[in-house]
Amino acid sequence: MRTIGYVDGFNLYYRALKGTPYKWLDLNKMLSRILKKENRLVGIRYFTAMVTGRIDPDQPRRQRTYLNALETLPGLTVHLGTFLAKSTKRPLSGSNPRQFVSIDSFEEKGSDVNLASYLVHDGWRDMYDVAVVVTSDTDLITPIELVIRDLKKPVGIISPSIPCPKGLAQVASFVRHIRKADLKNCQFPASFTNAQGKRITQPRGW
């Protein structure tokens, strides 16, 4: 069965990768490991946004290095939303009289909409027999439900969260979970060369 993976990059990072030594993750290996043998992976769409480096100046470089590694995978495409960083004032809880504090606010925009759009678009173009969505974001329930109901194509969830959120689990054709062993055994080599001869090296601390 032709299978395309749709990866919610930020959800995967914050639910399964942050604080672990497994950020150097080969998505092709991971999806192939989790899916059944009859699933022939014909493409991966990775949805993310470029971080600002406002708190960690080296973060954009590490992210770019990882995207370079992902782009060596056959059939993988990267789709960018936007990452908004701004300062704002919020009332301090319990303060009397009312006091306000300045906080840094960070918000990733567009990735869930982009993922939903490609999931439906690829489905009606008959680019896959099965779709798998790597996320635990319940905002994606409706597009998944539409593809299953109206396009008659199964959509599975590969959940970075254990358990998978109830709403997603109820609508999905099947549910798999990302476990520590999947992350540990599906890492890129620490250093390798891409097709253009450029050396790609795992960021320090990853």
From TrEMBL:
Domain of life: Bacteria
Protein name: NYN domain-containing protein
Species of origin: Desulfoglaeba alkanexedens ALDC
